[in-house]
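Q: Got a minute? One more chain.
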Amino acid sequence: MMKKVLRVVIFLFAIVVGGQLLFTGISSAAASGSAGPDKLVQSGAILTVAESKRLIGKAVAQMPVVKNALANGMIIIIKGTTNAYVAEEISGKKADHAAFVTGRIEPEKAAKYLPKAKPVNHLILEKGKVLDIPLGEAAKKLKAGDVVIKGANALDYKNKVAAVNILDPSGGTTGITMPFIVARKAHLVIPVGLEKLVAGDVVDMTLKMREPMESLSPPPGRPSSVFPGYVIPSMWLVTGEIVTELEAINMLTGATAFQSSAGGISGAEGSVWLVFRGTRDQVKKALELVKSIQGEPAYSE
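A: Always. Here it is, folded:
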């Protein structure tokens, strides 16, 4: 009987002592402000549209599928504003931003700042070397594992679907490349900033845009005599590996990111406010990364 009582006393004593030690440890960690090297921390940064494009360009250049295609296959970088930065980061050479624009969205009545430029071809690389061939010919050369990089005009981030405005009666660059991307099992990478987020269901939008309805005005900067019957653009749904600022931060630093707000003034119109979360080292790396790109000139400069 005495042995049983002694065992109970020892057991209760152990619980009390262990609890005190645990409480002391928690209190010490709280007092020091740290619960260990893997504690999550957060920070954030504001990125202008141009800064976001640079960030996305850096991330796309580091994607394993892109690196593999650069070394062993073909990469097609279709002209577009974000892809101008992608082309620079992959090739290491300065791109003519004005010449890398295809379709454009500009103010109806305000001044247009984009200078005139001599036309250039889409950037087509085979095992790292530039191919000076038409886009259609390059598309026919696509094989499994090759990469096509194509931007977008609309982004449904929740459903990971993007869409491209189609004004060209033949489908533009999307119409040239998409059949071969799908049939040949090439990778489609879609660099697109969070500024392209749209309200509503993109699938529903594309169906509405394809309805043959009368339009009361020509598209911006496109007289109806040039594009008869294509006054309001159609939209082409595209699915692939979408790379926004959020994926870019994660790819380049290991931190996760989310968008907390958008918009601004004094050149920050269309900007995004991002919050980074991760280990202390990851968040510090994210901050260093965004600081290195902040100050990127506006696209037209």
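A: The first strand starts at residue 41 and ends at 47.
Q: Perfect, thanks.
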